[in-house]
Specification:
46% of the residues lie in helices and 17% in strands. The chain contains 13 helices and 12 strands. A hairpin with a 5-residue loop joins strand 4 and strand 5. The two termini are 25 Å apart. By secondary structure, the protein is an alpha/beta fold.
Length: 352
Amino acid sequence: MSEKLLRLGAAYHGNRMPHHAAADFQDMAVHGMDLIVHTFSHTDWDRHSEVMARLIGMSEEAGLEPWIDNWGLGGPPGDKSFFLALHPEAHIIMSDGNPDPVRACVNHPAFRQFTRDWIDTVYRIGGRTIFWDEPHLPGKTVDGKKYYGCTCPICSERFEKQYGHRMPEAPDDETEDLGPHPTAGYSAEMPEYSQSAGLKNAGRVMIGTYGMSLSQADKIAALPYMDNIGSDPYWIGKKKKDPSLNIYDFVRSESEKNMALCEKYGKDHNLWLQTYSNPRGSEEDIVLAAEAIYDAGARNIIAWGYYGSESNNYGAENGAVTWARTCDAMARLRTFERDRLLAAARAAYIAK
């Protein structure tokens, strides 16, 4: 693959006031960033679409390439699915027979049309890259028993055609694969439509989280209309469960898995730096994790999110310090990259 040029950025959400956003975008630009991920939820679509068009244009004026995130369209991660108020028949059905209250089935025809309409809106407001954020199916444990989704009539019929028997109550290898994973069907059809509408497709999966296995991530990476595949080696929750966790080792190892997947399928990549939920006093870990991602070979590195994600309940405990360390980390990576390229140029000159 050709040499990857460094691109740095952050996710931006929680503010739809252009005068404030202008200052934030300049802040990102002067700290060496050149990529911004805008969440574009159902609420944004209904209430802020023209404002979002302005923010996308302002991003580009500041030198930031905008990606548009399908934040919560079908449910978490992100907002709960407001689509279900219009189509209550489209809930994910868990294998215990109960509907998931906030998630829509991605195989439901109405939801796929809803997504196509959203894609058309993204193009209209100036988006040119869609960021498909963490496709996954839900699971839950009740009284020690594991259940999974989706087992709605559409998904059940699809399963029976594939395997010749009814879906089981408990998850197994077949329900995990679902030949292929149901999100892969949606993640194939929607990016194909997106590309036909003139947009590029990037996405990320949380390997080992939300029930997303490496084999399922592999299926999504293999899809022909996905241009860019990423993941988020977030360490804070892992560190809370295991205080002995070596952050550098964990982040680098997980990042290398993503890079290997992209290399396998000839795809570009995106790797994410955790700048939310950061405990006070732990902000220096951001610098360490950023270098681990860079050392794994990643050159598209994005923080979730801007200013420690302080607009959310999950924001960092000290947004100002979290943002300062984020900017320190990005500046170091930019210096590393400049030094690497300069060293290569010098070596080439000497070799003449």
